[in-house]
Amino acid sequence: MKEATINTIVLLGVLALAASCADNEEVVVAETADKGLFDETISHDNLQREYLLYVPESYTGNEPVPLVFSLHGAGGTKESQYGLCQFNLLADREIFILVTPQATSILGNVTFWNQQNDPNRADDVGFIEALIDDVASRYTIDLDRVYLAGSSNGAFMALEITCQLSQKIAATAAVKGYMLPDQINNCNPTTPTAIIQMHGTEDPLVPYGGVSATLQFWAETNQTALQSTVSHLPDTDPDNGNTVVSYLYTNGTNGVEIEHLEVIGGGHDWFGEPGTDYDINASEKAWDFFTRFDSNGLR
């Protein structure tokens, strides 16, 4: 499918459905000085950029902790992504700091990440890099363990950031999104990065057929085995109409891996989000994958 067609499908879907994420969630901003959820801004490229910062109660500052970014889909907001993925619950349990940034708007008030790094639009790659540096200056961050997760347009963006900032990203999770041909052609990462991609075969907005080119690119770039190991995940609910198949590409440079989770029967969802019924939880799968890698490769 042509690149312009994919972009058109995504945008039309956004306009029809209002967002690729769940409805906006009300978030409660922290009252304490150093723990909880904070609604913050940072100046970058002559713009005031917004983001949510979540610091779990379990954070002490005595030991470096991972930093996880969660990028919303087209038409979404930082609040909708925060409620959709619920990475904050994992942050409480696993002790990491969570950043949920906000994209700028196009077509009036429709938010959309600059997934192809267009110089005429907002510098989203630089925005994320600035956030890495800013958060690390205020909190005790393990800079070998910076992870990206993205939903739909946010997944396209997460992969673009990985292309441009591979030396700063340990692993990336792309859910219901992949790379367009121009992104692949212009992607020149300097270090190998582990990638997990999850996609529903019945996705009506971002067609499943675009997944294979992205997997092939990262397998070749990371010099993994080009033939995947295939396994079927447990069918935890035979009545929910979906099953999951894992395709794992191993033995990459520094031990990095590429994994694809094919959600047979799955739609344009963050799998496991509130109100859905899937055999996997995308946030849990992303974190489980992240824990296996740092900037030096397999941990």
TrEMBL record:
Gene3D superfamilies: alpha/beta hydrolase (3.40.50.1820). Transmembrane segments: none annotated. Its main location: secreted. Keywords: Carbohydrate metabolism, Hydrolase, Polysaccharide degradation, Secreted, Signal, Xylan degradation. Residues 123-230 form the Phospholipase/carboxylesterase/thioesterase domain. It holds the Pfam family Abhydrolase_2. Residues 1-22 form the signal peptide. GO terms for cellular component: extracellular region. InterPro entries: AB_hydrolase_fold (IPR029058), FaeB/C/D (IPR043595), PLipase/COase/thioEstase (IPR003140). One of its GO terms (molecular function) is feruloyl esterase activity. The keyword Transmembrane helix does not apply. It is found in: Secreted. This is Polyhydroxybutyrate depolymerase. It comes from Cyclobacterium xiamenense.
